[in-house]
Amino acid sequence: MSETRENRIRRMKMRSMRRGIKEMDLILTAWSERRLESLDEAGLDLYDALLHENDQDLYQWVTGQVPAPARYAKMIDEISQVFQK
């Protein structure tokens, strides 16, 4: 059975909250609360893939220590802006 959009968003919000690094919990939770509902299916697919990335890498991308892979660059830029506020 296929996952409903509502359940998928709920699952991704939980994964955003329960990361390995507290900083990433806070950053991704803030972004997911603001943006997940408005993403189209391709955006949800991309964020779901992003959630499978290593927290250490994510943190370096979001803080600008290391450039994000091209595939995630736009989304990481949006997440970084939420982080900076």
Automatic annotation (TrEMBL):
Which keywords fit this entry according to its UniProt record?
Chaperone
Record SUPFAM superfamilies = YgfY-like
Q: What family does the Swiss-Prot or TrEMBL record give for this protein?
A: Belongs to the SdhE FAD assembly factor family.
Q: Any idea what this protein is called?
A: FAD assembly factor SdhE
Q: Which organism is it from?
A: Lutimaribacter marinistellae
